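Input (Aldo/keto reductase):
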Amino acid sequence: MIDISLLQSQLHLGLGCSTFGGSKSAKEAKLILNLAFEEGINYFDLARSYGYGNAEAIVGDFIHGKRDKVFICSKFGILPPDPSSVKVKLIGLARTVKRMVPGLSSVVRQSAAQSFSKTVFTPELAQKSLHDSLRALKTDYLDLFLLHECSTSDVMREDVAAYLEKERSAGKIRHWGGTFLADANLKELLNIKTNIDALQFSFVDHQTFLKQKTDSLRILFSVFSMAPRFSNQVGEGISVVLSKHNEFERSFLQACHDLERGVILASMSSKEHIRQNLSLMANYKNILIE
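Output:
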């Protein structure tokens, strides 16, 4: 069993699984999972809505016999579409035409994405989502359970927190926290006593928050979305040999530098991409010059 304190003590690369069961078929997703696991990646980021509701089951099949060797994070608050809906059935069509007519597959995916629904966070929603996640993943506990796209007020709701603490005591979740919206005031949480174990947020929207000290596990996503800012440089006070690294690599290096300890999420589909990110993370202190 992987303890959260290990994730808090150093940098870790996590695998984002949002495309599993969506743009990535179950067969493709399992290949990616195998590649990542073989390279030492054991943090898998999920949500009830990922892969139009299919991602958790795919990962659940993969982790059979490996449960104590992986860290599973899932989320609740955004419901997957009805699997019988016409839009979801078009996903298979999108895969088929992806190479033949790239523009059409994008249109189909956008249409299916409109089927997702954001709901109000309640204990009842958390209970149902947790039950569905555990069943799909074929496990009796989650390492981390997050409110999906929440505000700071959402994670401070006493009824939701009380339910999550009850499930923590029962052993169904080990830790909980939130994935925060772009306009969430994360600094507000630093001055309030809460039982939140983890804060997941976008590197694009909350880069300055990384300068704040917190005991909670910090998880970054949308790291490569910062790439345009680093087309000719990296962050203030940092330099790097520009000719050796493109803007995506520089964005990743900046995230490693700013986070220092915690998890950086990335969607990776090849052994080369996985190894490249792991290498950059392992050597970022030698690559960046302060």
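Strands lie at 11-16, 43-45, 71-76, 78-79, 117-118, 144-150, 176-180, 198-202, 217-221, 262-266.
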